[in-house]
Amino acid sequence: MDACRGEIMKDYKILKNSYFDSVTLMSTTVTLKKELKLKELVMFMGTDMNKDMIKSVGLYHESLDEAMPNDLMLAVELDEAFPNWAEEVVARLSSSKSKSSDEKTVYKTINQAYEAIEPNIAVISVPGLYAANEAFKALEKNMHVMLFSDNVSVEDEIALKDLAIKKDLLVMGPDCGTAIINGKGLCFANQVRRGSIGLVAASGTGLQEVTVIIDRFKGGITQAIGVGGRDLSEKVQGRMMLKGIDALDQDDDTKVIVLISKPPHQTVLDKILKRLETVKKPVVLCLLDAHVEKTPKHVHFTSTLTDGAIKALELVGLDTPDLLSFDKTLVDTINTYQKAFTNDQKYIKGLYCGGTLTAESLSVLRPYLKGVTSNVAKKDEEKMKDPMKSSGHNLVDLGDDIFTQGKPHPMIEPAIRLDRILHEAKLKETAVILLDFELGIGSHDDAVGITLEALVDAKKLAEKDGRALAIVAYVCGTDKDHQNLESSEKRLKDAGIIVAKTNAHAAMIAQELVKGVKA
Amino acid sequence: MSHNILSIDKEIFQAFVLHGARVAGIYKSTMHISLQETILTLGDRVGFGKHHIVCKEKIPFSELDYKVGDDVKIENHILTIASHQFIIHEAAIIEYKPFDRIYTLNQKSYQCLKALREMIEKDHDQNLFRFPKDNPWLKYQFEKIQVFLAAPGLPSALSILGLGMGLTPLGDDILTGFILGLQAVGKTLPWIPKLIETAKIKTSQLSYQNLKDTYDRYYPNIFIDMMEGVFTQNDIEKAKAILNLGATSGAGILTGFIYGCM
User: For B233, left (φ over 0), alpha (ψ -120 to 50), or beta?
Assistant: First the structure.
């Protein structure tokens, strides 16, 4: 093992005639670097061009000269001695190889899958240009459709939904990220118990947040139907929301219906309210940022996801504690931060993975914070001029297209948020960093773990500059999610992060922290 | 238990009988066999082609008792590898010939290529392209690939030959697709033979085999389907089936193909 550049050590290994596919190598490199705390790890076939590439970053060693094009070269940079690193890497590569040999049957077309197993639902995630075509094929085979793809034209969306209604099927989407059908989570969803609350939502993380809170207080769900963010627009006229209401109204297991959306177009809202008049079950109408003057008696309007979930639980006879209250420890913590903030520290910087959670926070903070802006805002005066640049009170949805071009969504790869966290921490004006973490299927296996180091560094950066930086986080997940909710929250708390009970609670804590500060 | 061979090239069959071969690599659903200087791929989903041996049954090679270096031989129309036997029916011995069709690039096929290029650049997310390009290793690869695609020539081609992580590095997939694209529309470039000659020592054996087969016009069916999809049927769906090939190979080949044609 070579020691150079102070304490950094380098080591090398050649695996003769070894082949792993490039995606396995790439993703294993990312994981192993993190897990084994390797400063750098490269794994490439022993071709001259790859040797040049390794040379270009100063990681090459003459021992790699022996590598032939059919061999795999491993090179590593370490901060601490780790004699068995190569064995660890090989073991991990072998396990991912054998893992991938647990091969499931892959069908290349919808028709092939239909002929083989006759599914009744198709989840479609192909480039938008082709998505409608695939969805039509699925509908023709009498399958419900979950359309994860975006960039589907509004005309196609309307045609698909009309065909589905005609065939008594659902089209969830386009751009639908969350659904739970007969207990099965699709795309991004949390593990929640089954019960008697049915939901229809034009919002992915909004649906996750409400189902998570319902589960946390012993409630359960029958179905959670996503409809896609554009369903309640003037053009689409809430076709699937109305269809979803009908489906849940007819479902004997569903005792309470919850509808979730950002504000619908007025004509759509009128249609929904009219339809709700004939629904026989109690309904919670959770519309962020909307104002509804008059609703039928059995329809309960709420404007935050937390309130929506609490109301639904109440309607099925389950109590919840006050999820928006502050206990004494929290009040003390807030007071301590308030005293420690410098005169420059005035602003809240929300860095979100969930779009609807960003919108909910905006809705919660708007009455209290003058000049709060966001890239999910609809009102011109609230829109962030440049979401890449921080200025004043900002709530940034990092899942926005401008952040995800060529990159995975932050719920899949939260690492894209790390640089921004550190950037905000360096700003003298930052008082509070507000974060969300989503657990559940589809989301990163350890979103908290991957972010923790950056959070600790952010606090240290501020401290070095004579500032106390408050970080408030909310973990949207259940105790049944594979990422382990308890451990996720504990690690955050241990790192000095304030952990909120719900997303709205997190926003309120942030607001309280900067209360009295003159912006 | 015996398996059945659906396709083996006649020339390869004869070389097997004369020389025998050895197992060179064992994977989950395919196996590489080294026959003299040639690498053959055995599996049920490898596509019909000169250097592919297609078997009828899906075989989990990596879970069975095969070892690298095992003898592979053909006697009495039975291919034997370790304790496993594959029956070769007469109809499975096929004389593969170079694909000699040349296509015309017209408005429709041009639009089809354009749509595919757009998809690769913007939407395709099943492979290396989905990783952030600011990753230093990918940045290095994609910068060199961009240089080649902007100015294809021997120096830029050699700078991506063997460049990439897997056994068929991304750079080679791009080159394979590029040569395929050129040949599809009846073009050639004087430096391609030198590239193929260099590939013999500068990249993995399998990748060299793919490049040489492409240059010699021994195309697997999936290549022919892609060309037919673009040029004859103007069917993007058919053309993009190539994306199912390997982990990154399909997207690399398609990228190179688009630039080769256009």
Answer: alpha
Rg (CA), chain B: 19
On the question of a cis peptide bond just before residue A174, with omega within 30 degrees of 0, the verdict is: yes
Reading the block at residue A469, the tokens are 């930086």
In Å, how far from its chain's centre is CA B48? Answer: 11
CA distance A368 to B24: 69
Q: The tokens of A353 are what?
A: 């993975």
Dist. CA A447–CA A445, nearest whole Å: 6
**Which token pair is B250?**
């399909």
Evaluate the CA torsion angle A119, A123, A125, A131 in order and state its sign. positive
The minimal CB distance from A406 to the residues B133, B164, B236 is found for B133
pTM passes above 0.80: no
Taking the C-alpha atoms of residue A142 and residue A136, their distance in angstroms, rounded to an integer, is 10
Query: How far is the alpha carbon of A435 from chain B, nearest alpha carbon, in Å?
Result: 22
Sign of CA dihedral B170, B171, B176, B178: positive
Among A108, A126, A70, A72, which Cα is nearest to B245's?
A108
Strand B38-43, strand B30-35: pairing = antiparallel
Q: For each successive 10 residues of chain B (262 residues), what is the average pLDDT?
A: 88 91 83 88 84 89 84 91 90 91 90 85 54 69 87 92 84 94 92 93 88 92 90 85 73 90 86
Which residue type does B90 have? E
For chains A and B, what is the number of CB pairs under 8 angstroms?
Answer: 120
Q: Which one, of A455, A459, A437, lies nearest residue A503 by Cα?
A: A437
Q: Give the whole-angstrom CA distance, residue A381 versus residue A373.
A: 8
Residue B200: Cβ within 10 Å count: 14
Count the helices and strands in chain B (H runs, E runs): 10, 9
| Dist. CA B206–CA B204, nearest whole Å | 6
Suggest the residue from A49, A98, A112, A413 to mutate for an interface test with chain B (most B CBs closer than 10 A): A49
Residue A45 with chain B: CB contacts under 8 Å: 162, 164-167, 169, 203-204
CA A349 – CA A12 distance, rounded (Å): 43
Beta strand pairing call for B71-75 and B52-55: unpaired
Of how many residues is chain A composed?
519
Q: Which of B94, B69, B93 is nearest to B81 (CA)?
A: B69
CB atoms A20 and B166 under 8 Å: yes
- Calculate how close chain B gets to A59, using CA atoms only, in Å: 12
Please tell me the distance from the alpha carbon of residue A73 to that of residue A364, in angstroms, as a whole number.
Answer: 53
Contacts of A510 (CB under 8 A, 6+ apart): A348, A350, A361, A365, A432, A434, A470, A472
Backbone angles phi, psi at A349, to 5 degrees: -120, 105
CA distance A20 to chain B (A): 6
Sheet holding A373-374, edge to edge: A373-374, A394-397, A347-352, A430-438, A470-476, A498-499
Residue B101: C-alpha distances to residues B39, B98, B185, B230, B232 (Å): 26, 9, 9, 14, 11
Residue ranges of E strands in A46-170? 72-78, 121-124, 144-147
Radius of gyration of chain A (CA): 25
Task: For residue range A16-39, list pLDDT tens digits in order.
Answer: 776 676 666 776 777 777 777 788
Q: Is B130 helix (H, G, I), strand (E, B) or coil?
A: helix
Residue numbers in B near A98 (CB within 8 A): 62
Looking at this predicted complex, what is its ipTM? 0.74
Measured distance CA(A180)–CA(B100) in Å, rounded = 52
> What phi and psi values does residue A251 have, to the nearest 5 degrees?
-80, 115
Between A49, A128, A406, which is nearest B159 by CB?
A49
| Contact at CB, B130 and A408, closer than 8 angstroms | yes
